[in-house]
Amino acid sequence: MSSDSEHPARPGTASRTAGRQMRSRLLDVASARFREHGLGGVSIAALAGEAGAYPSQVTYYFRTKEALFVEAACRDMLYVARDAELAAGEQTTPAGYTRALVCSVMQADALGFFIEAMTLTRRRQDLVPLVARTLERLHVEGGRAHAAALQARGWPAPTDTETVARRFWAITVGIAVEGHALGRSSDEMGDEMLRLLGNWPEGPASATAPTLRLVAANQTLSAGPDEESLP
Amino acid sequence: MSSDSEHPARPGTASRTAGRQMRSRLLDVASARFREHGLGGVSIAALAGEAGAYPSQVTYYFRTKEALFVEAACRDMLYVARDAELAAGEQTTPAGYTRALVCSVMQADALGFFIEAMTLTRRRQDLVPLVARTLERLHVEGGRAHAAALQARGWPAPTDTETVARRFWAITVGIAVEGHALGRSSDEMGDEMLRLLGNWPEGPASATAPTLRLVAANQTLSAGPDEESLP
Prior knowledge:
The structure is a homodimer.
Chain A: H1 13-37, H2 44-51, H3 55-62, H4 65-89, H5 94-106, H6 109-122, H7 128-153, H8 161-182, H9 186-197
Helix pairs in contact in A: 1-2, 1-4, 2-3, 4-5, 4-6, 4-7, 5-9, 7-8, 8-9
């Protein structure tokens, strides 16, 4: 029945697992090379070679180099959000929480990578769904988890948690675009972010903190198609 | 004494005026062509031809195509801010003022042009001063004029006007980067901006409005070098 004798119970499981692993490896390699050399400085052949794949596998999984670029950036951005949440989660005061969250986000290379992906998507509207899904997760899951995290800490929660998450990420992107253009350090961008957040999200500064838990720590992060659609 | 008999009182005045006019014409042509075709789709020769100049004049005034791109975008961005202020100035309520300001900014083609210039500057740090000067004007002059505009309307002014201006423009840039990536209309971006501003800048929504008067209406806008440094 099965094409793989080691997994007789579920036909195709092994090949699906191998497919996911190759897909994930290609994303890892793409992320590193694109961040280092940019879209134009990386070829599909080079990526395939480094990942131990055939070039045809890259186009099979991702269709185009641009789609791979955007998907890698979107996946990394979700890791940025998760890492920021983990860093902030160790804090015990609202001010400490906000500072840890902001510093973690602003220090992340992947923030600039994601902004490049959004800029690319402007002229490649076929890639919109990847970016839209990533922003949706940042905004909606972030917003939902925000209220829960506030309550768990005994801090007052804002009324509109999704708006709070949207505002946080819009300011983040705006400051990063400006900061990258000006050659600012991540510390400088973090200071600017803290300045602009002010008594963010709402209410007295001592009572509220931007606790954006975006995804559970043990959750697999993917901006790509659902598992069902994988080969 | 003078090289131009029509302006005997101030040696060199006529040639300086002609230089400024050529410089301004080149910026106008560059703005239109770069917005239409992007940096890569426009040549110095084509720009010069359309402006009635020699290619060497383009490099004389701007050094590189990238510098011309960034300066044109910066100049246009200052016009965006001025036009938004003029549109908002006709409103009589804080809510109307905010809506007019936001809609005007989000409808401006030049906002995306300026974001492209900031993205370019990330890899061309020699162009940082142009972007830095433009953001400084948006933030500092905007902040200063903000307080005056609020007082003139009898509305309470926020305590830190520069921070208010910085926050406004960071959110604007963030929403525009996201919105352009998602293929959003200017109306949708305006709605998102109004959502994120909330009771921005501070205090009760009915009492405060984002009156960012950035430059006086009759002031010449230039992101380029001071007049003294012009040929």
